[in-house]
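Table S5 (text form). Sequence records supplied for joint modeling of the two-component complex.
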Amino acid sequence: MRQNIITRFVLISLAAGLLSACSPVRDIRFRAHYHDANDLLYAAAQESDLPYLKAHLKDGGIVLFSESWDVDMQKEIVTGDGQHFDFNRRFVRDGEMVVSVDSVVIFETNKMPKNNDQSRISSLSVLGGLNTALGIYCLAVPKACFGSCPTFYLDGDQEFHYARAEGFSNAIAPGLEYTDIDALNIYTTTGGTFPLTMKNEAYETHNVRSLKLLAVPREEDQRVYHTQDDKFYLARQRVELTSARSGNDDVTYLLNKDDQTEYFSLADPDNLRSTEEVFLQFDNPGNIQQLGLVAGFRQSLMTTYLLYNAFDHMGNLYGDLLATVSIAEDDAPTIADVLYEQLGGISAYLRNSHKNEWVYQGTWYETGPIAINHQLMLLDAAHPEEEIHIKLEMNRGMWRLDYLHLTEIIEKVVPLEIQAERVYANKKHDEDLLQIMLDGDAYLVSQPGDTYRFEFELPAIHDDYELFLSATGFYMVWGREEWQKEKDLYSLYMMRHHPGRYLKKHAQAYKEYEKVMEEAFWGSRVKHQIISGHDK
Amino acid sequence: MINKQVLLVLLMLLLAVSCSVPRGLPAPEELPYETKGAAFYVKLHDGSVYRGELIAAENDALYVLPAENQHPNMKRQSGVVQIPWDAVDNYRVYYAHGKSLVWFVPVYTIMTFSHGWFAFLTMPFNLIATLTAHFTSQHEHVLRKKDIAPEELGLFARFPQGIPTDVALQDII
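The corresponding structure-token record, covering 709 residues in total, follows.
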């Protein structure tokens, strides 16, 4: 996958570079030499404009004629205004020149050489236009371009498309601090030191109170998954998806492997709140006590867009309104709560063939469009005697699904909590930061562009662990100058108190955003197929 | 891995750009009024190199007037150097300077700072495109050995007819 991306990137870049540059013109026909004056006259007659003329003299001197010159073949002379230079190109004289044809060894004509400068500059202008357009777009919708919450990387994966986790995405104010657990989805660990890099890739201030590795020992062919409510289960055996359908489309090939080939639908152009269904089928898993459904998923940029819309609407009250979120004593829902209520998560239903009904099993919900979440849902399907049918319900254009499979749950487990042993700030070991991370009440404050490396030591008593990251903290998005101009408290009120109408009204605007950003953002990394009843 | 590959491409482009054309070349529109020979680079089989004005290209030898500011590694000569054709390994003719597009490189690179996440893609893309454009523009009026045959070199020599019979090599400056 990664090689494909590299190849594609390099090829596109080179092709575009060559296109923008255009090859140089290697044409020497702008200059011609004639040994005979008749040949010169014949060639000049073929041209609409008289070419520039140089007469190379037998003594090594040269006469440059200005734009008008004439050859008199009867008198065998060349006449015209010009300049005479000797063989070392020292100026001799200028003015009216009369040069005997006999004294000339070569006549040289010149036209303006061709070049590709114009097409080259035109191509660069197009590139400049695209740069400007993307820059303006990123200023208008910064969240779409400038990241979100702390992103975590394994060694070797340093670019946001490969982030393994994103911490506490919903904690946009101090009062909203919480602990976020993400599966790192590593197939095997080798023990010893486990490094993890945390980056601030956004115009945000990240405040990290705690960062812990959660480790569960596992044997060969075992995996450990966590559920939406952060319970951990040891599992074995993988029951593959046999069929997946969205409407009339067979999307099995998109969902049967953990390969970042994602299923994704576009939003409804008439209403952002619009449900879609995906139907899954699994072969009879046999005699299993407890069955679990495992999924890899993440959000599209829809919630990102809506959150930034809210910030836009707040205008110059952005700071004040976020502060009230932190000090509010009532349980009034935040805008994030309202959006969750309206747009919802990924709900799963199990088919009960005896009663001919779909039975609700649970809902996954994780904020953030960057890192793929890997989560488990326990199914109420003990001792299934036939194939398993599951229906997923989710908001259109809101979720990206990577894979789904069933697994056999062995037991509930409690992970080991492992604190960092060493912390490096921008590659420098920092003991003070380590103490802050171990304190529990202090915060590691990360500013845009900061990079921290944490090193954990995995206990030697087991060879292999399933690893999760537990991050506690909050972050604050930096206010932008543009927001000062766009205060729209009525829209903010509508978003908070009449979200249904708001989501309907802003559907078209989001479709414009989605058309550009979803493709550009994800097209650079993952293979996916857009399935949408309205937008095929 | 991706960083190494991108850096390698950029390094190659930077090296290519660093192979700059000689200074003091005429603009393309000044060519009809240029009285001297084109700037010339010639590399011999023995590894030695001459840079200077192409004085003449005759059937058996090239004549080059080495530039005063030639590279320290090059042989220094006073007056015109006669180079037999069978000693020549490679050559290039620089007859005019191209348009400098170098300002696009920093300007477009800085523009990508506003692209956020996308800068990882757009920055190298812009660097490659602008450096390539600048490089090819600078070398627009350069002819390599494959572009111009030895018998055509006279087109860009001070004396296309060959060294004039009444002119001594040591008198040419």
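Note: Chain A has three domains: 2-25+115-138, 31-110, 141-530.
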